[in-house]
Every structure is written in C-alpha cells, then in structure tokens.
Amino acid sequence: LAKTTQPISMDSYEGQEVNITCSHNNIATNDYITWYQQFPSQGPRFIIQGYKTKVTNEVASLFIPADRKSSTLSLPRVSLSDTAVYYCLVEVSNAGKSTFGDGTTLTVKP
Amino acid sequence: EAGVAQSPRYKIIEKRQSVAFWCNPISGHATLYWYQQILGQGPKLLIQFQNNGVVDDSQLPKDRFSAERLKGVDSTLKIQPAKLEDSAVYLCASSFLAGKLNEQFFGPGTRLTVL
C-alpha cells in the first residue's frame, strides 16, 4: 500500500480557502485517493475521492496532477466548523484496502 | 438511513480481562471494517470483511484479538486478554462495495480504557 505524507497541522482564518497537500509517491495504477474529515469523539467522514485531474463536490475539490504522486484537497471559504483532522488515503481499487496516515489538524480561527 | 451502530460507547477494564465490541453496519453494505485509533494517530485497520469472509487481517494481533461477522451482517471484535496498550477507540465502518467509490461510513466508536 502506498504511504501518504501530510503536514501535521495548518492554521487558517474564516472565509479563506485552505489547500492541504498529500504526498503518495508509490501510488499504483489502480489506486484511488480519498479524503476524510474527523471531528473529536466522532468517526471519520468521507469528503471526496478521485483518480486523476480534478473532482469537485458541494464541500470540496480534489486536484490530482498527471503523475499522481500528490493530491491537494481544497476547502473553499472555511468556517470555524471546519476545524478538524483531515486524512488522505490511497485505496486499492477492487480491494478496498487502505491505510490512514496521521492526518492534518486544521484549525480555523475567527 | 440509519448509520453504523456500535456498542458499548465506553468501556473500562483492567489488564488481562476480556472485552467484546459489537457493530451493526448499514443495511446492504457488504464490506465491514474494524479500526483501532490510538489518541493522536490515524485509524489503523485491524480487519476487513467482505460479507462474512475475511479480506485482510494482516494487522490484527491474532494472539489476543479475534473478530467474526455473523451471517455477513453484524460483527463482534474481542480482545482476550487486554493489555494497557489496547487503550484506544475502536471504530467500525461499512461500505457498499470495496474499492472504487468506496465510501466508508463510520460508527461513533467504542472508547476502551485498560487500567
């Protein structure tokens, strides 16, 4: 399984766009990239998943360059409630095997 | 739609005692996962079931941990005997399919404290 590397922590202010980058140098051809959000005392919650280029949903965008060795989660106009830990996962297609790293703690300040 | 249910929510035991956790996944989800999350770390996959078969248990400490998935629905995770380092939150998750578009839905977890 591809190992992922993320910054340990990030700070931002309300209304700003936040970009969290994840490195996954050993990603395989059939692997997918998935991001989860976790609040204290709760289980992780799915945010977005992608294979290449750009994926956008109602809460975030995921940018994956052509070499797929990294990916960037973009959160537009964050609010205080976006303060959480964000995990990048590489998942093996057709197997579901995945490994969570230690995540990025995002703190949004007023 | 009902989410993933887990019980108990909290458990305190002494080392060398036994403990069991229960998980009821979302109806129709074929894949079920058990994770261990130690404070300050990301979730670590212990075991993954596809229906009632084991897909991956490579990180399950099999000398003390066991898990089963009855009839491909509910699942139990047991620790016997517990050690101090087993103190963690045990998360259960389920997904409709494994792999592509594999959105995992997590339960609230069981916080285990081993004294």
Straight-line N-to-C gap of chain A: 38 Å
Task: Report the principal-axis shape of chain A.
Answer: globular
Judged by helices, strands and strand pairing, the structural class of chain B is: mainly beta
Number of helices of chain A: 0
Output the radius of gyration of chain B. 13 Å
Mean pLDDT of chain B: 92
- Provide the β-strand percentage band of chain B: over 45%
Structural class of chain A comes to mainly beta
Report the biggest beta sheet of chain B as strand number plus sense, adding barrel if it closes.
7 strands, mixed
The greatest inter-chain interface is formed by: A-B, 24 and 29 residues
Helix-strand topology string of chain A: EEEEEEEEEE
Question: How would you characterize this protein structure?
Answer:
The complex is a heterodimer of chains A (110) and B (115). Chain A is mainly β and 110 residues long. In chain A, 0% of the residues lie in helices and 52% in strands. Chain A is built from no helices and ten strands. The radius of gyration of chain A is 13 Å and the shape is globular. Chain A starts with 8 loop residues before the first strand and ends with a strand. Chain B has 115 residues and is mainly beta. In chain B, strand 4 and strand 5 (44-50) form a beta hairpin.
Tags for this entry?
heterodimer; A: 110 residues; mainly beta; 4-stranded antiparallel sheet; B: 115 residues; 7-stranded mixed sheet; globular
SSE map:
The complex is a heterodimer of chains A (110) and B (115).
Chain A: E1 9-13, E2 18-23, E3 31-38, E4 45-50, E5 53-56, E6 61-64, E7 70-75, E8 84-92, E9 98-100, E10 104-109
Parallel strand pairs in A: 1-10
Antiparallel strand pairs in A: 2-7, 3-4, 3-8, 5-6, 6-7, 8-9, 8-10
Chain B: E1 5-7, E2 10-13, E3 19-24, E4 31-37, E5 44-50, E6 53-56, E7 65-69, E8 75-79, E9 88-95, E10 105-106, E11 110-114
Parallel strand pairs in B: 2-11
Antiparallel strand pairs in B: 1-3, 3-8, 4-5, 4-9, 5-6, 7-8, 9-10, 9-11
